[in-house]
Amino acid sequence: MYPKSRLKCINCGKEFGSDEIVYVCRNCNSLLEVLIDIPRISLKEMAKREFSVWRYREFIPIEEDCEVVTLREGGTPLYECNRLAKWVGVKKLYIKYEGANPTGSFKDRGMTVGVTKAKSLGSKAVACASTGNTSASLAAYAARAGLTCYVLLPAHKVALGKLAQALMHGAKVISVRGNFDVALKMVMELSQKMDIYILNSVNPWRLEGQKTLAFEIIDQLNHVPDVVCVPMGNCGNISAIWKGFKEFHISGIIDKTPKMFGVQAEGAAPLVNMLKRGDKVLTPVTHPETIATAIRIGNPVNWPKAVMAIKESNGFYEAVSDEEIIEAQRLIATLEGIGVEPASAASVAGLKKAIANNIISKDIEAVCVCTGHLLKDPEEVIKVCNRPIEITPDVKLTPEILLAK
Ligand code: F0G
């Protein structure tokens, strides 16, 4: 069974049908969200199926007769991290490792649903602007579906692994001499002139796939954690995860919800700045800059939804420096064996900072969402790690060489 659904404007409440191609409200230009008829089904019943995005079929508003475009996404590990917990200063810490998805990031959860939706609407071409991961994921799912794919990337600011993926999966890649925000504006304008389906996170159907991350945390833990930490860029993911927890709550599967903690990089923190100042409206950062290129975004389209997620959940927000991000990335890798890209490490760095500043109690159980794989951005890793020791074949390998600092 799939749930019946419709689109609703989060500002004026105007509704649109699930078969309409519409990204923002035609009445007031605000964001849309998917409303579903919440099913009454137990977790136990769904647990009989493969552990993946589609285990939660009753919550995913894709009609039964649609052929699902899938690469077996979701079902990612939730690692208990005791050594890292000590470093962070928190009682209990888990990492939800989204690097284990088919293209190495959480975007695959959204794309399996978004590209299936594109096919069901009869689209022949899909497109996105991206800081890298969305383009890698969309390129792969478009290939799987036999659709044409166009991606717009900020020139010279996309990690090499992600660019390689988009190119190899056959997307037409346009490099824009500007940042992500400029590229997104361009692709949205193009969608009015050309028959292409946009799969940025402004597309509310994509978020329906991403909300399954919340379902999986409940499935894996068997209870509700106190805090869920999420790195924020365009702010779609934190909104999607919060929607997932809310839907499980309404359906009666859980009896409370966690607090959502959104983390941005200091050089690209328009939402955290806005919340810290107590402003009602977001002031974009014109020249966002951070080593975590995935979240190098100055004007996040989904900011109103992220504000709802943080406020409704009684949650938190924080910004972290590039140094804090790199340190967290290194410790996640060395203390736990989990390889994540810099943006992912922002969740752990943010938690450490919030605990040190007494914003969050150390006496909690937290889940940090680590959104992308270490291999996405090998160039950054090489820059911040020690060089290998190079020796010639005639040199005798001695313990001194191995033990040298
Ligand atoms: N982490 C990673 C690794 C990402 O790639 C992104 C977003 C985020 C976190 C933030 O998620 O935008 O939903 O708040 N990457 C997008 C992209 C923007 O184009 O790949 P968000």
What does this structure look like?
There is one protein chain. The protein is of the alpha/beta class. The protein is 38% helix and 16% strand. The strands form three sheets. Strands 4-5-13-10-11-12 form a six-stranded mixed beta sheet, sandwiched between helices. The longest helix is centred in the middle third of the chain and has 16 residues. The model has no long low-confidence stretch (mean pLDDT 97).
Strand content: 15-25%
What's the total count of β strands?
A: 13
Give the helix tally.
Answer: 15
| CATH fold category name of one domain | Rossmann fold
Order of helices and strands: EEEHEHEHEHEHEHEHHEHEHHEHHEHH
Q: Can you tell me the CATH architecture of one domain?
A: 3-Layer(aba) Sandwich
Spatial strand arrangement across the major sheet: 4-5-13-10-11-12
Bound molecules: ligand F0G
Radius of gyration, CA atoms, in whole angstroms? 21 Å
- Gross morphology is globular
Low-pLDDT stretches are: none
Query: Briefly, what CATH class of one domain?
Result: Alpha Beta
Structural class: alpha/beta
What share of the residues lie within helices?
A: 25-40%
Distance between the termini: 60 Å
Main β sheet profile = 6 strands, mixed
The mean pLDDT is 97
Features:
four-stranded parallel beta sheet, binds ligand F0G, globular
